[in-house]
Amino acid sequence: MDERKYWNPILETLPLEKMQKLQLMKFKKIFEFAYENSPFYKRLYKDAGIEVGDIKTFEDIRKIPKVEKGMLREVQQREPFPYGDMLAVPIEEVSTFRQTSGTTGTPVYQAETWQDWECYTECWSYILYSQGYRNTDRVFIPFGYNIFIAFWGGHYAAEKIGCEVVPGGVLDTAARVLKMQELRCNAFMATPTYVLGMAETARTKLGIDVAKELQIEKITVAGEPGGNIPTTKRRMEEAWGAKVYDHIGATEWGAWSFECIEQPGGLHIIEPFYLIELEDTETGEPITEPGKEGKMIITALEQQAKPCIRFDSKDIVRWADYQCDCGRTFRIIDGGVIGRADDITKVKGVLLAPTAIEDVVRSIPDLGNEYEVVVSKRGDLDDILLKVEMLEGKESAEDAVLARLKDQLRLKTNLGYRIEIHPYSSLPRYDVKAKRFKDLRKKGK
């Protein structure tokens, strides 16, 4: 087994001052590349009165206009089809098509050159290697290989590290569990929802306790915030008898952060490839001190086909005030992504993050993994309905569970809820990203 600690020892332990010099150099390079090759970016920057030579320091970077998702959708109406004039390379150089899931609107089409894809795979290699993946591992990938980016990068990075990769694309959940058992796979990657769903399917349909009868040692999760929610992570780890590691990425800019084997309570930023800025959601002022929540602005420093420069991610994060025992000098965002600026909503005058509800529901052992939240109007007042499931055989504890739920929700979110307890397996199940939070007020209903 390869006993090296780091995938790239030089970059992963680079002192902050040298890292910042590298980032500034790369930023100026990708800024100039986008200015000269992307009609969209050239138009954006000229309208703002910014020329290539104007960017000399980190302070200068803040003068550059931000890009938002709506711009990406709008630009797709232009040529060249289907990417629009944000494209910064000849379309003949595009080797891979991806698109976003469309859960927050019209899908965004993402073009990648071969170099972009190599960069994406390299970032995933940092992630998996930090979580203990080595050439002795047999890794199962239980997702439908499709136009969504999902775990494509994880697949190729696992191969690059030297793992044996077993693709489980068209198999159903039960068949995937059986194949993992048959081949003695010791690692896999999935959304938190599907990690819990596979364990449930194994138990209820196959009579298999995956923690005892499979040999899974490590699981990498992405696509949802569950990996950084302590109660959800604990449920996953208990269900599989394995360590669960979080990772956050996006179709538009790639794999930018990871939780290492030390699990410090936050996620490392892959700083040689990404520049992260935090800004106050109200004033737009930069946030550099730890502990203060802000909106993340991200730049992919080596992405060429569709450059991602100062993209307003809407993700709410905060800098950590600690270093990790792993020895990496990459900065850490404490607790991962706390929420999204467009998900955190005001209910009854109180700011509510859906992740807080998940943390409470998953903290109660007698409840199942699934739940649903519906925010609506009852007359002129906001109303929150929470639907949960009792585990089979736990029905007698319903009154105690209901009382605990109400107390914990009031404590953690400062809000009152109407709560419906449903029979086990009656709420919707999801294979990829779950849609458990529904704000009907936004739909005018």
Question: Which SSEs are present, and which pair or pack?
Answer:
Layout: H1 9-12, H2 16-37, H3 39-47, H4 58-61, H5 69-75, E1 94-99, E2 109-113, H6 114-130, E3 138-141, H7 152-161, E4 164-167, H8 173-183, E5 187-190, H9 192-205, H10 210-213, E6 218-221, H11 230-240, E7 243-250, E8 254-258, E9 266-269, E10 274-279, E11 294-300, E12 311-317, E13 332-334, E14 339-340, E15 345-347, E16 350-352, H12 354-361, E17 367-378, E18 381-390, H13 398-413, E19 418-422, E20 437-439
Parallel strand pairs: 3-4, 3-5, 5-6, 6-7, 17-20, 18-19
Antiparallel strand pairs: 1-2, 7-8, 8-9, 9-13, 10-11, 11-12, 12-14, 15-16, 17-18
Helix pairs in contact: 2-3, 6-7, 8-9, 9-11, 12-13
Kindly describe this structure.
The structure is a single chain. The protein has helices spanning 9-12, 16-37, 39-47, 58-61, 69-75, 114-130, 152-161, 173-183, 192-205, 210-213, 230-240, 354-361, 398-413, and strands at residues 94-99, 109-113, 138-141, 164-167, 187-190, 218-221, 243-250, 254-258, 266-269, 274-279, 294-300, 311-317, 332-334, 339-340, 345-347, 350-352, 367-378, 381-390, 418-422, 437-439. By secondary structure, the protein is α/β, with parallel strands linked by helices. It has 2 domains: 1-340, Rossmann fold (3-Layer(aba) Sandwich), CATH 3.40.50.12780; 345-443, GMP Synthetase, Chain A, domain 3 (2-Layer Sandwich), CATH 3.30.300.
